[in-house]
Design goal:
2 copies of one chain form a homodimer.
Chain A: E1 2-6, H1 10-22, E2 27-32, H2 36-47, E3 52-53, H3 57-62, E4 68-71, H4 78-88, E5 92-95, H5 102-114, E6 119-122, H6 129-137, E7 144-154, H7 164-167, H8 175-191, E8 194-202, E9 213-220, E10 225-234, E11 240-247, E12 250-254, E13 258-266, E14 269-276, H9 285-298, H10 308-326, E15 332-333
Parallel strand pairs in A: 1-2, 1-4, 2-3, 4-5, 5-6, 7-10
Antiparallel strand pairs in A: 7-11, 8-9, 8-15, 9-10, 11-12, 12-13, 13-14
Domain Gfo/Idh/MocA-like oxidoreductase C-terminal (chains A, B): 135-333
GO molecular function, one term (chains A, B): nucleotide binding
InterPro entries (chains A, B): Gfo/Idh/MocA-like_OxRdtase_C, Gfo/Idh/MocA-like_OxRdtase_N, NAD(P)-bd_dom_sf
């Protein structure tokens, strides 16, 4: 598959290019970046300088030689990218979050629902082994009643902090929605959609550009409820990612490394099984490009796992949390596309 | 110190009597129970049959030979017990929760505020080594921003399930408030009072007589926020008790066994220290009776750690959670005494 890369930043070089090779035969044959010299540097790494460097996004979509476009632009460009893909009839995969606000996100869902062009949101957490395994195991614990999800870290200055659109985010929720949609993908792939939220937020670090600490209570469409904590701006702290799910007939707990399934009706009758996860599967980017390749080759959008509709929900849940926080934690319904 | 025990049930025999010996020189010299034969059986164990068995609570309070009364009646008797203690000028310690509803709890706080008679709520979690250690360590992590508190268990049928007042609880919150006030004591001794709550509840087991699963989001008076989960009615699950506190300059995490303090401004500059807790200190009942003895001997109510005012707050927070749950999770302020 021949791909044109639009937006040749850090993540394109560090994550997409290695995944193109591992996912199978994806060749970079075109590239565009607002700063052209960066695109030229990118094609050296990504295609030994063989790919064409274009002066506009439209030229990439018009290139009859490419099979699909990979979009990694700042998030407020995503709607425009989707429009161009549909107009050109060219399959598109673009990075999460789906959009910078709910209106743009809704339009993306509407447009992609009406079109047969395969359009996928690159939400790699939909493809993690841990996500797939939890989704399988949760069926074995009876009715799910409660979940506790937390991702916490101390503050680290990273290479991504230098990115202008992260420092002065145009998208709702900024730091929180950029990362939090991943976690919402994990939660909702396993437990289904979120109906309502109550949330509190704060900003601990100026460098994060926006609120960076979120604690939320989610009520799911299923009736189950639980906590979602996304907080990565503390002083010294352990880095945690844990997802505990409790049901009437057992529990499934991911502690960041492995998954423990416990089954049985109560504390007097329990059995347990531990599932170790392969470390190389954590990234999920390879799997998402395999999925995208399949959709492009079969020209069938129905095979796409991380659809715009799902990504809308991940983003809408984070947006609902920011709204609840502004309403002193009161209950806010998650918008539907 | 000579004590009269009013209400000679399981907890009096299993927890108070051993603590009387370990706390120092507390002798059971009087006892009362609605079913007199139970009181007679109790004094055999508690005093080798030496203590007097009375036919009424009033007779216990009138006994000039006793220094104080230990009350373990069903919770809806607590207000009456407090009135009798104040009328008799006899120090009283009685078991949590403070009362069966907020009105009775408020009256207890009002009456004890006006009286100099030492009156203490037996909230043993105020005396746990883990509580005291967390309270000390939390001062070292800068401004507290977030906490995550969870206590989860699979369902176990216990000897307490047979108790009539637990099966058909008269007190608000029933199962949840009976246990949850302990956890609120732990949280608030360490982090201060709760201002507002959002909560979801459910009942998984008929045997628990009332809601038995609670997930809440708490905003503290300090401005910090976090999650409080009390859920002990699942199918097979690990038993957990964990309390994570995150601040601008570090974190303190209790995992059920030990406490880890991490200090430093961010993820690049961290140091940590682990504090093991002595297992024998878990119960706290010995410490609370030492505290009560001191108050009785000095006739000074100001030395009491687990005051009615504190216990009111623990109970009022749980009550606020049950109210929020009935209001679809919307924000409810915690009542003040």
């Amino acid at each position: 598959m021949k791909i044109g890369v639009v937006g040749t930043g850090i993540f394109a070089t560090d994550a997409h290019v290695p995944a193109f090779e591992q996912a199978g035969n994806i060749q970079v044959t075109a590239a565009y970046n607002r700063t052209k010299s960066k695109a030229e540097k990118f094609v050296e790494v990504a295609s030994n300088g063989q790919a064409k460097v274009y002066d506009s996004i439209d030229e990439v979509f018009s290139d009859a030689n490419i099979d699909a476009v990979d979009g990694l632009l700042p998030v407020d460009n995503n709607l425009e990218l989707v429009k161009k893909a549909i107009a050109a009839g060219k399959p598109l995969a673009f990075e999460k979050p789906i959009a910078h606000d709910l209106d743009a996100a809704k339009k993306i869902v509407e447009l992609t629902n009406k079109s047969d062009v395969p359009i996928m949101v690159l939400e790699n957490w939909c493809f993690h082994e841990r996500t797939l395994k939890m989704k399988e195991l949760v069926k074995k614990i009876g009715k799910v009643e409660l979940f506790l999800y937390q991702t916490t870290k101390p503050f680290f200055i990273s290479k991504y902090h230098q990115t202008a659109w992260r420092q002065k985010p145009k998208h709702i929720g900024g730091f929180i929605s950029d990362g939090g949609v991943h976690d919402m993908a994990f939660i909702t792939e396993v437990l289904g959609d979120v109906a309502e939220v109550n949330a509190r937020t704060s900003q601990l670090r100026e460098q994060n550009g926006d609120i960076d600490t979120l604690n939320a209570q989610l009520r799911l469409e299923s009736g189950a409820f639980g906590s979602f904590t996304y907080a990565k701006a503390f002083g010294a702290a352990d880095s945690t990612l844990s997802f505990q799910i409790f049901g009437t007939e057992g529990s499934v707990v991911f502690d960041g490394n492995s998954i423990v399934l416990r089954t049985g009706p109560d504390g007097n009758d329990m059995s347990s099984e531990t599932f170790e996860l392969a470390p190389e599967s954590v990234n999920g980017v390879v799997s998402e490009f395999k999925n995208f390749t399949e959709a492009v080759k079969t020209n069938d959008k129905s095979v796409i796992v991380s659809t715009p509709a799902k990504s809308f929900h991940h983003f809408a849940t984070i947006v609902a949390c920011t709204e609840s926080s502004k309403k002193n934690g009161n209950t806010v319904q998650v918008s539907k596309a």
